[in-house]
C-alpha cells in the first residue's frame, strides 16, 4: 500500500507494508506533522507460557491475556530487546524471565554446586546456563555474581579453563566496528567487555562475555594478565 503525504507543497511517498501473520494484528498507521509512525500492536492471544509470565510480572495468574497483561509483557520485551514486541507470552520471553529467576536464586553463593574451580586462587567464573559471572579467590566470593550476555547460537562462548592474556581499556573491534571498553581477552577473540544494551538482549554476543559498564570496570580493576577464567554450562537457546 502506498501512502502519499503533502508537506510544504512537496509530495512525500512512503511505502508502508502492512501484514497480518499468525497472532499479530496489523498495526495502526499514525500520520502527524509530516511524519508516519506505526503504533505497536498488542496481541489478544494467550501464549504457551501465559501463567508463568503473569506470575513473574506479578499479574493475576489466570492464564488469560488481558490488555493490562499485554502492556506489562510489552514493557518487559521493549526493555530487553525481545521482538516482536506484541505482548505475547512466548518461549523467548519466558526463557529470559526464567534466566532472571535462576540468577536471583544464585544469591551470594553462585558456586554452591562447586562447578568453578576453588583451587586456583583468584579466578573469574562464567556460568553460561545461568548467564552469570563472578570473581572468587579460592572459596571466597570477591565480586558478583552479575548478569552477563554470552555468545549466540553458532557463535557460542567457548567453555573450559582459560587465562587472561591481553587487556585493552578502550579496544576497537575491527570485526564488528564497535568500541569494547575494558576488554580482557581470555580465548582468541573472546573477552570480557562492557556494552550499553540489556544483558538479556537476544540472541547474544559474537562470543564475548558482555557486561554492564560498572561490572566490566570492576573486573578490570580486580583482574590482571595471567589470571584464570573458567567457562562452563550451556546458554539457553544454543
From TrEMBL:
Q: Which range is the signal sequence, renumbered to this chain?
A: 1-39
Q: Where is the active site?
A: 193, 208
Pathway membership: Cell wall biogenesis; peptidoglycan biosynthesis
Q: What is this protein called?
A: L,D-TPase catalytic domain-containing protein
Q: Which SUPFAM superfamilies match?
A: L,D-transpeptidase catalytic domain-like, PGBD-like
**Which residues does the UniProt record annotate as the domain L,D-TPase catalytic?**
121-232
Which keywords accompany this UniProt record? Cell shape, Cell wall biogenesis/degradation, Peptidoglycan synthesis, Signal, Transferase
Q: What are the GO MF terms of this UniProt record?
A: peptidoglycan L,D-transpeptidase activity; transferase activity
One GO biological process term is: peptidoglycan-protein cross-linking
Checking CDD domains in the record gives: YkuD_like
> Highest lineage ranks of the organism?
Bacteria, Bacillati, Actinomycetota, Actinomycetes, Kitasatosporales
Source taxon at top rank: Bacteria
Native organism is Streptomyces griseus subsp. griseus (strain JCM 4626 / CBS 651.72 / NBRC 13350 / KCC S-0626 / ISP 5235)
| PROSITE patterns reported for this sequence | LD_TPASE
* GO cellular component labels: extracellular region
Amino acid at each position: 500500500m502506498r501512502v502519499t503525504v503533502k508537506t510544504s507543497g512537496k509530495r512525500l511517498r512512503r511505502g508502508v507494508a502492512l501484514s497480518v501473520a499468525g497472532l499479530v494484528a496489523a498495526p495502526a498507521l499514525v500520520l502527524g506533522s509530516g511524519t508516519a509512525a506505526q503504533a505497536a500492536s498488542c496481541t489478544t492471544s494467550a501464549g504457551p507460557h501465559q501463567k508463568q509470565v503473569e506470575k513473574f510480572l506479578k499479574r493475576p495468574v489466570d492464564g488469560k491475556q488481558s490488555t493490562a497483561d499485554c502492556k506489562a509483557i510489552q514493557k518487559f520485551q521493549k526493555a530487553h530487546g525481545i521482538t516482536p514486541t506484541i505482548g505475547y507470552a512466548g518461549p523467548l520471553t519466558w526463557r529470559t524471565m526464567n534466566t532472571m529467576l535462576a540468577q536471583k536464586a544464585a544469591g551470594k553463593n553462585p558456586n554452591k554446586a562447586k562447578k568453578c574451580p576453588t583451587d586456583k586462587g583468584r579466578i573469574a567464573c562464567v556460568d553460561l546456563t545461568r548467564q552469570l559471572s563472578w570473581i572468587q579467590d579460592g572459596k571466597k566470593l570477591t565480586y558478583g555474581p552479575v548478569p552477563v550476555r554470552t555468545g549466540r547460537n553458532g557463535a557460542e562462548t567457548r567453555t573450559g579453563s582459560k587465562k587472561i592474556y591481553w587487556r585493552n581499556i578502550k579496544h576497537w573491534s575491527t570485526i564488528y566496528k564497535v568500541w569494547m571498553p575494558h576488554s580482557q581477552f581470555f580465548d582468541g577473540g573472546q573477552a570480557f567487555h562492557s556494552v550499553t544494551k540489556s544483558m538479556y538482549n537476544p540472541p547474544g554476543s559474537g562470543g564475548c562475555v558482555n557486561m554492564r559498564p560498572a561490572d566490566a570496570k570492576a573486573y578490570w580493576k580486580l583482574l590482571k594478565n595471567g589470571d584464570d577464567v573458567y567457562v562452563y554450562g550451556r546458554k539457553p537457546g544454543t
